[in-house]
Amino acid sequence: MAVRRRRRRDGRHDTDAHFRLRPATAADVDALAAIERTVFSDPWPRSDFRESLASGVLVLVAEAGNEVAGYLVARSAADEGEILNLAVTPTHQRRGVGRALAERALEQLSARGAQAVYLEVRESNVAARRLYEGLGFEPVARRPNYYRHPVEAALILRAANLAGRRGA
Question: Catalytic: 138?
Answer without folding.
Answer: no
